[in-house]
Amino acid sequence: MSAEPVPALRALSPRALDDLTRALRAGHFAADTSTFMIRHMVPGIGETAATELCSLLSAGPAAEHAALLLDTIAAERLSLARRAVLELVMSGPDVIGNSRDTGVVLRELFASAQRRVLIVGFAVHQGREVFAVLAERMRLIPELTVRLCLDVRRAAGDMTGTDALLRRFAGHFVRHEWPGRRMPALFYDPRSLASGEGSRASLHAKCVVVDGVRALIGSANLTEAAQQRNIQIGIEIGVIVSGAIAEALERHLHALIAGDHLQPLPLDRA
Fold first, then answer.
1. Pick the residue with more confidence: 15 or 248?
2. Which residues, including other chains, have CB under 8 Å from residue 42's CB and lie 6 or more apart?
3. Do the beta carbons of residue 66 and residue 217 sit within 8 Å?
4. Would you tell me how many other CB atoms lie within 10 Å of the CB of residue 73?
5. Whole-angstrom Cα distance, residue 247 to residue 26?
6. I need a surface site. Which of 66, 110, 145, 264 has the fewest CB within 10 A?
7. Where are the domains of the chain?
8. What is the rounded distance in angstroms from the CA atom of residue 116 to the CA atom of residue 143?
């Protein structure tokens, strides 16, 4: 369980926080307000956040006190955005004395996740090692959600049907790349499977966003070699960003999913 109070309210967008605060101060909510009423008045919040607000109101705090709590969350969010820093991350020996190892940082990010993880990658190899910490985190925290966006490629000259390619990719991922019983939600860009090479795209970004507050952006693929050994044949460089930049990155990727630009690929452990 998360150590933070009201984690879903803390995760709301600035607009949703502002709308909810205004509704509280306008007197729209009372101790017996239902989650349905809250979501009807403020469409930008989900069921979990509405439940947290209902619990707050039923516990006794006046609406104004709840509004002050949301003000505090918003101020905390703004402060975090203003403190946003960049931290250099790279694979291989630290020759300049102020960088961190890519594999170590990725495992630390996975181990810190409390609510949600969003991963975008071009290539996955030896995923059981790369995702081991994250899969264990999912086992320990049932409410932790993981979205994984990967490049599902059609090789040049491959005329296999799209459905067959997707089944093959999903089967390989489940059997060989994912180490846990709980599966992530997997998404892909359907343009990567276009039959015409001229119209074919690829999902080439590489990033990890944890809880909407920290993100790793860089060149490293989701492979053991990229995370640990690529100093031998090249170099992998990235940065950790926090605050508003990480939040904006997460919103953008979620919008791609919501707009069907990235589509779900079902996974079945069985």
1. 248
2. 16, 19, 20, 23
3. no
4. 20
5. 29
6. 264
7. 7-82, 86-264
8. 8
Q: Which two tokens stand for residue 13?
A: 């967008």
Query: Tokens 């703004």 identify what position?
Result: 78
Q: What pLDDT sits at residue 102? A: 79
Q: Using the predicted structure, report yes or no on whether residue 173 has a pLDDT greater than 70.
A: yes
Long-range contacts, 192-196 (Cβ 8 Å, 24+): 192/151, 192/152, 192/153, 192/154, 193/152, 193/153, 193/154, 193/162, 193/165, 193/166, 194/154, 195/154, 195/159
CATH, domain range 86-264: 3.30.870.10
Q: Which strands form 145-150's sheet, in the order they lie side by side?
A: 100-101, 86-90, 237-242, 214-218, 207-210, 116-121, 145-150, 185-188, 263-264
> To which residue do tokens 């459905």 refer?
163
What letter represents residue 3's amino acid? A
pTM: 0.63
Assigned token pair, 226: 């990229």
